[in-house]
Amino acid sequence: MSAIKSNETKTKTLQLIFTTPGERTYYAKVDGTTYAVGTIKVEDDDSSPPAPSGSIYIYGVSTPEEANPGDTVNFSVRVDNTYSQPKTVVVYLYVNGVQEDFEGGDVGGNGSRMFTLQWVIPEDILSGDYNYLIKVIHDGQTMDETAGTITITTNKTQGVEIVSFTCTPKEVGLYEWKLDRDRVTCNLVIHNYGDSKIKVALKVLIDNIETFWVDFREILADSNSSIEFEVKFDDELAKMVYGPSATALNFVQEVQEYEGVKCERNVCYNITIYYLPKEHTIGVVVYKAENGVPTNQVLARITGETIIVKDDNYFVKKGLLLYKEIGKQTVPFILGYVGILRVSENEENKEVLKYIGEKLKDILLEWIGW
Question: What is the pTM of this model?
């Protein structure tokens, strides 16, 4: 601004742009002194359009309460849209957690639309109540959902029961691995009391923990089926039951406290947790199978056999067996060595026989694992 003469008034217009609302104070500086002249209040002038309001929801579902195997059940679903603009939605149908059908389409603004979903009931389905769930999805988000139950009735009888279950021997010892006495043989008889064949899958229970599958088979109507399987108490079974760090005999775990004594100076205590050498229960759970794959439907279950697994000085007896085998295998080596000594009296044969002796020694040490 140019100089102002005495008794003269000048006006200067400034254009200020404020990007955020709030109160601002403006100042004037005269002869090095700053004076607060006044305040300006900047108000929020949001000219963007407000977010549309509304909702998408399920107004109602029409479906029968009962059905039979082989029926096609229709679910008539009315979806309402209270937004002023049309909305695209997808309606899903789930039965017992399995997606059975879906249908998509636009629902007009402030309007509604009917969607028809279908569930084809399998012919071999069991009688009982089946839970359905219907969801309405818009832009990847669930806008609404509703649930209900359909009762399936059938004249067919379908199911299985366990007639007998035995495992022998009742005691096994880990040290008897050479004689295959670290395992038990179990025999199971299943009866299909239904009037149609059924496919089943069997899984072994150890201490009520599911471990490994042993059989997939089809059982004819009103007939028995016998299954035999082995349970071997080894490292692999211990891992299934107790976790990847377990072994058949034991697992050393570091603890912060042992018998009431806590760690001192970062020195902790190791305790040995014995896994398989104790009393265990063996059982079987029978699942219904479809297309060679087990479903989550349990048909029968039993946990009736108790087996005692003994430690029986595992390492000592395993060592004795090893020494016995070494003794049996050592005799030919000793005889061979004596023969080598006799032949080696000839100076010309000494180097060759020394080489042969070293090779025999290497073979023996490799066999015993040293």
Answer: 0.43
